[in-house]
Amino acid sequence: MKKLAEFVKERRKAVRLTQEEFAGKAGVALTVIRKIEQGQTNLNMDKVNLVLKMFGHELAPVNSKDLAE
């Protein structure tokens, strides 16, 4: 499974946007993009989802029972 940091950075670069440009288009602060791409773990889920929405994705809680099936 690809890490969030790698996923966002690769996708952002694929669309040829700087961190600052991408932050503006995603509607988040530049620091949010930097924190995500640096792999920081203390992130606001709503902000992360704004970023992921740019690529048609979303993070959601997963029930451990669902993983076992």
Notes on the structure:
The protein is an all-alpha fold. It has one domain (4-56): 434 Repressor (Amino-terminal Domain), CATH 1.10.260. The chain is 59% helix and 0% strand. The chain has five helices and no strands. It has helices at residues 4-14, 19-26, 30-37, 45-53, 64-68. Helix 2 packs across helix 3. The radius of gyration is 13 Å and the shape is elongated. It starts with a helix and ends with a helix. The model has no long low-confidence stretch (mean pLDDT 91).
CATH topology: 434 Repressor (Amino-terminal Domain)
What percent of residues are in strands? under 5%
The largest β sheet comes out as:
none
Structural class: mainly alpha
Q: Using DSSP, what is the number of strands?
A: 0
Provide the gyration radius in Å. 13 Å
In terms of topology, how is this protein built?
Layout: H1 4-14, H2 19-26, H3 30-37, H4 45-53, H5 64-68
Helix pairs in contact: 2-3
Short description:
The protein is an all-alpha fold and 69 residues long.
Can you tag this structure with a few keywords?
59% helix, 69 residues, mainly alpha, single chain
